[in-house]
Design goal:
Length: 121
C-alpha cells in the first residue's frame, strides 16, 4: 500500500508533526516485520515546512523531528516540502535534511491520486 501523510503544523508547539511521524515510522516498522511492501510518503505544508530544516537542537528527552524525518528517509520513505510554503517562510533556499526535497502542488496531486491512504495532521 502507499501511504501519504500531509503535515501542516510546525515541528514544535503542537504534537501533530510528532504524531504523524510516529505513525509513519510504525507503518514502516510493521512493513519490515511482516514483509509487506508499504510505501510511506510525507508532504510538508504550511509551517510543517520547518520540519525539514537540519541541525534541530532539542532538550534531552524531548522528541526531535529531524531524527524522525531521517528515520523515515532511511527506510526508503520520501519527504517533500511545498515550495510555495517554504518560499513564503523564507526557507526555500536554506539547506534541508539530506533526502528531503522541495516540491510542488502538482506532485502532491500526483501523490494523492496514487495513494491508497491519505492521512492529514
Amino acid at each position: 500500500m502507499k501511504y501519504l501523510f500531509i503535515i501542516n503544523d510546525a515541528p514544535y508547539g503542537t504534537e501533530k508533526a510528532y504524531n504523524a511521524l510516529r505513525l509513519a515510522m510504525q507503518i514502516q516498522k510493521d512493513s519490515i516485520a511482516s514483509g509487506e511492501e508499504n510505501e510511506v510518503r510525507i508532504f510538508l505544508m504550511a509551517d510543517a515546512a520547518f520540519c525539514a530544516l537540519p541541525n534541530q537542537n532539542t532538550p534531552s528527552g524531548y522528541y526531535n523531528i529531524e531524527r524522525m524525518i531521517k528515520s523515515v528517509l532511511n527506510r526508503n520513505g520520501k519527504v517533500k516540502i511545498c515550495g510555495t510554503c517554504a518560499d513564503a517562510r523564507g526557507i526555500k533556499n536554506l539547506p534541508l535534511i539530506e533526502g528531503a526535497q522541495i516540491s510542488t502542488m502538482a506532485e502532491l496531486t500526483q501523490w494523492t491520486i496514487e495513494s491508497d491512504k491519505t492521512i492529514t495532521f
